[in-house]
Amino acid sequence: MPRAFEMTARQLSIEAMEPDDWPAVRDIYLAGLATGDASFEISAPDWEKWEAKYPRQFRLVARDDRGAVLGWAALTAVSDRRVYAGVMEVSVYVASDARRGGIGEKLLRALVDVSERGGIWTLQSGVFPENTASIRLHLKCGFREVGRRERLGKREGVWRDALLLERRSDVAGMD
Q1: In DSSP terms, which residues pair with 154 in a beta bridge?
Q2: Three-state helix/strand/coil letters over 104-125
Q3: What pTM was estimated for this model as a whole?
């Protein structure tokens, strides 16, 4: 039985991430990094650095009906300048054995909702062009491709491009 089918038969909840979720979140993050197409990062930070980077109100996890964390999504500030207070960068990761079950979409849609309630007017994401699943996910959730940033950075000594994807809110920041 395909994993995606199994997930539709089970209950999935999207919840605020708690500190106790860190080991599972870290494992999912490391598995994503191991693909080579998820991030310029090659290792996970310790909890203190991760917590300082991702504000609590913008951290979510997806849980199955047994309480297992199957994925996570979070926002981080793109700048500490006040003018960019409503602009945040998206991270979405799904456990390798839970992919293709709609979890990433549920997480990203919930993160968009949380961001708008938090006054965030622009979400952006830098995605390697080879990460076609992530690109499709973002486009499905209302992001658009703004451009391609060529040779943006090196990952393990290899120059990588990144697509800049962006979603503008129709409600937050309109006043």
Answers
A1: 159
A2: HHHHHHHHHHHHHHCCCCEEEE
A3: 0.91
The answer to whether 64 and 79 have CB atoms below 8 angstroms apart is no
In tens digits, what is the pLDDT along the chain, a chain of 175 residues?
344 434 455 689 999 999 999 999 999 999 999 998 999 898 999 999 999 999 999 999 999 999 999 999 999 999 999 999 999 999 999 999 988 889 999 999 999 999 999 999 999 999 999 999 999 999 999 999 999 999 999 999 999 999 999 999 999 877 7
Question: Which of the following CATH numbers is that of domain 3-123: 3.60.15.10, 3.40.630.30, 3.30.230.80, 3.40.1380.20?
Answer: 3.40.630.30
Q: How far apart are CA 1 and CA 15, in angstroms?
A: 27
> Of 165, 154, 172, which Cα lies nearest the Cα of 42?
154
The residues pairing with 126 across neighbouring beta strands, listed in sequence order, are 164
